[in-house]
Design a protein that fits this description.
The protein is an alpha+beta fold. The chain has a single domain (5-160), classed as Multidrug-efflux Transporter 1 Regulator Bmrr, Chain A, CATH 3.20.80. 17% of the residues lie in helices and 36% in strands. The chain starts with a strand and ends with a strand.
Length: 163
C-alpha cells in the first residue's frame, strides 16, 4: 500500500469538544453522534478556536485516550473527543470537555473514511516495524477544515516529548 507519511513534532495543544467513551469494536456506533453534537453546537466554542495567520480554524480533532485520560492507546474501550483545536487559555463551556494533549513526535498518515482501517493497520503492522517505531500513545484524527476532498490525517505518537 502506497501511503503518504511524514514525521512531525507537535507541541502540546488544547482541544475542546464533545467527549464520549465506548467499546473499540463499536466505535462506529458511538463516535458519529459526538461529531453531530459538536458540529451542531460549534457556535458555543467558535470564539475559542485557534486560527491561522489568514483567520481560518487551525484544525478539528478526533482526539483519543485511554479511560484514565493519560493519552495511552485504547484497549477494549477508549475515550474520544470530537472537537476543535483552541487557544490554550480557553475554558470549556458547560457540556464541553477540554483536553491538553502532550507534546509528541508523530508519524502522520493521510487517509479517507474509506481507507481509514487499511491505513491504520498498515502503519502499525508494516511501517512501524520497518522503521523500528513503537506506539507511544493514543492515535488522533486530524481534520483540516480547508480540505474539501474528505482527507484526514492519523497522528500516531512515536515519542513523548518533555516540556
Amino acid at each position: 500500500m502506497d501511503m503518504d507519511i511524514k514525521i512531525i513534532t507537535k507541541e502540546s495543544f488544547s482541544v475542546i469538544g464533545k467527549l464520549g467513551q465506548g467499546e473499540r469494536n463499536k466505535s462506529t456506533e458511538w463516535i458519529p453522534p459526538l461529531w453531530n453534537d459538536a458540529n451542531s453546537h460549534f457556535y458555543e466554542i467558535s470564539t475559542y478556536a485557534k486560527l491561522d495567520d489568514s483567520g481560518k480554524i487551525v484544525g478539528l480533532w478526533g482526539a483519543m485516550s485511554d479511560l484514565d485520560e493519560r493519552f495511552e492507546p485504547w484497549n477494549d474501550q477508549g475515550k474520544y473527543l470530537a472537537g476543535c483545536e483552541v487557544l490554550d487559555n480557553a475554558v470549556a463551556p458547560n457540556g464541553w470537555t477540554k483536553w491538553v494533549i502532550p507534546s509528541y513526535e508523530y508519524v502522520v498518515a493521510k487517509c479517507t473514511q474509506s481507507t481509514y482501517g487499511e491505513v491504520f493497520s498498515s502503519v502499525l503492522a508494516d511501517y512501524f516495524p520497518m522503521n523500528n517505531y513503537k506506539l507511544a500513545g493514543a492515535v488522533h484524527e486530524f481534520y483540516d477544515p480547508t480540505n474539501e476532498n474528505g482527507e484526514m490525517c492519523l497522528y500516531f505518537p512515536i515519542k513523548k516529548l518533555t516540556a
